[in-house]
Amino acid sequence: MSGKRPSVAQKRLMKEYKQFISDPPQGISAGPADEDNFLLWECLIQGPDDTPYEGGLFPATLKFPQDYPLSPPVMKFTCEMYHPNIYKDGTVCISILHAPGDDPNMYESASERWSPIQSVDKILLSVMSMLAEPNDESGANIDASKMWRDDQEQFVKIVRGTVRKALGL
Amino acid sequence: MNSDIPDPSDWIDSKLSGLKDVDETLRCHICKEFFTAPMITGCGHTFCSLCIQRYLTNTSQRCPTCMQEQQISQLRKNVTVETLVEHFSAQRATILRVVKEAAKQPIPEVVEPPSSPDLDDGRRRSGRKRTRTNYTETLVSSDDIQVECPVCQAMLPGAAINRHLDNNCNDTGANGGNWLGTKKKTKPLRKIQRVNQASESVANVRRKLQDEGLSTSGSKQTLFRRYDEWVTLWNANVDNKTPRSKSDIKDDLRRWETTVVANENAQPVKMTIKNIDDRQWVQKHKEDYDYLIEQARKSILKKKQEKEKEQQQQQEGHQKAVDRREDNEPDMKRSETEGYQVVS
To answer: Which superkingdom (chain A) (predicted)?
Structure first.
């Protein structure tokens, strides 16, 4: 912890990590990329069953701000993802990751926003359910939103392609 | 490294796994530590004084748990929880050790002592009696109860509250000292007022910072934020049962400046292309560019020469190797690298 006393953010993330490994949610693994810097985590998310993402294993990073948990982390998939709520660069757009006050899409109620009582496992579970149920009201990837609404078959085809790519097939 | 961070999951594998919930309940949802100076919101949720004040000043004016509107002035001390935390955290390590040791040995079954109805009755009667005496005692000694001053939020005995208010919350006078001087010599810490950025002048904030012995350097924004954080840290300290010294709080403020503020400032300044007239820029830095180009050329040349030398050596080596072995795979690899170097 760079020799100094760990900050509030670091301390809280240590606890979250410890709790996470003692009781990990199904289909999710996560942890700090480097035990000296708890502000950057790497995670792996399993594609939920009965969705086009089934069978996939998607790597992502979670970047925490210095004032965590007052502000939320930023989550970014590091593999190619085709999903209405994921920007083309992999950044996840989901209400639990938006601080109350900033609302990029003007549709979220304050109750589903980030609050310090949320935690890493809740974020990752929300992302998993977002994979299962895209929200086409807030299009982060407009093409994917349209495709999901208008041509489900083609959407599934493209997603299956990214799943195979993520698995290196 | 994880074993030295106590957290609710410590109880999971023990015989008393139910204590995980107790442990969790006694922790602040924001920092996940046991409550320090717990404060209860108007909507009934409890947080550390520092955590909730920081959140309400910097992030949002809503309760983090239920999102109801919330203001710092609505916060009240949660004394029962504070005491609970104190007792539980003092016993925690012991309970955990005992429970974990017990997990290794089979626990003998607990036998309920037989209870006779007579005994029960007697107990109940004595219990009622005790309650009654307690009640009267409370009535008699109501002046000894600590009450919070509605103006400055200092805690003082009920008997002293009227005089305290008459003196405009100033108890440092010769007469006011008698209820203080008996036990502690330190005067009670007082909360300080927040400043409103819209109505307060910079000079005023600078003076306030100076009065507290804090740094007065930085922009207007920095000064206001520094004072704001100071108020948060200080007032949270006042809520503490055993307040820390002023220099400790100053250390906290310094740490906050070095982690949070320094990090914000470290974000790269966005340079827009509009700001730069590229022709002017090239002219101004022509010498630098020329120098860099020259350096780059030189280093490329040097690398090429080195690689050529290496290749020659390798070729010779390979020739020998190929002579010895029939496997010609390394030969192919070599031609690949050769091709790459021609391109560069």
So the answer is: Eukaryota
The pLDDT tens digits along chain B (344 residues) read: 445 778 888 888 777 888 888 999 999 999 999 999 999 999 999 999 999 998 998 888 888 888 888 889 999 999 999 999 999 999 988 888 888 877 776 655 555 555 544 444 444 444 444 444 444 444 444 556 677 777 677 777 777 777 777 777 766 544 444 444 444 455 677 888 888 878 888 888 888 888 888 888 888 888 888 998 899 899 888 888 888 888 888 888 888 888 777 766 665 544 444 555 666 667 777 777 788 888 888 888 888 888 888 888 877 776 666 555 555 544 444 444 444 444 43
Specify whether A43 is catalytic.
no
Are the C-beta atoms of B8 and B27 separated by less than 8 Å?
yes
Structure tokens at A160: 């299956």
Judge: B29–A116 Cβ closer than 8 Å, yes or no.
Answer: yes
Closest CA of chain B from A120, distance in Å: 13
What number of other Cβ atoms are within 10 A of residue A130's Cβ? 20
Closest alpha carbon within chain A to B24: A19
* Residue A156 belongs to some domain of the structure: yes
Q: Is A98 on the interface with B (CB under 8 A)?
A: no
**CATH number of the structural domain spanning residue A109:** 3.10.110.10
**Fold held by B2-104:** Herpes Virus-1 (3.30.40)
List chain B domain ranges: 2-104, 143-181, 202-265, 278-343
ipTM of the complex: 0.73
Is residue A3, in this structure, part of any structural domain at all? no
Contact with chain A for residue B31, Cβ under 8 A: yes
Residues 6+ apart with CB under 8 A from B51: A116, B28, B30, B31
Buried residues in B159-179 as b, exposed as e (16+ CB within 10 A): ebbeebeeeeeebeeeebeeb
Q: Count of domains in chain A?
A: 1
pTM score: 0.60
- Judge: B59–A100 Cβ closer than 8 Å, yes or no: yes
Taking the Cβ of residue B32 and every Cβ of chain A, the question of whether any pair is shorter than 8 Å is answered with yes
Element (H, E) at B47: strand B46-48
Residue A35 contacts B where some CB pair is shorter than 8 Å: yes
Per the domain annotation, does A131 fall within a domain?
no
Q: In 10 A of CB B58, how many CB atoms?
A: 15
Task: Give the structural domain span for A59.
Answer: 8-118+137-166
Nearest chain A residue (CA) to B5: A15
Q: What's the rounded Cα separation, in Å, for the pair A99 and A68?
A: 11
Minimum distance, in Å, between the CA of residue B2 and any CA atom of chain A? 6
Homologous superfamily of B143-181 in CATH?
Answer: Classic Zinc Finger (3.30.160.60)
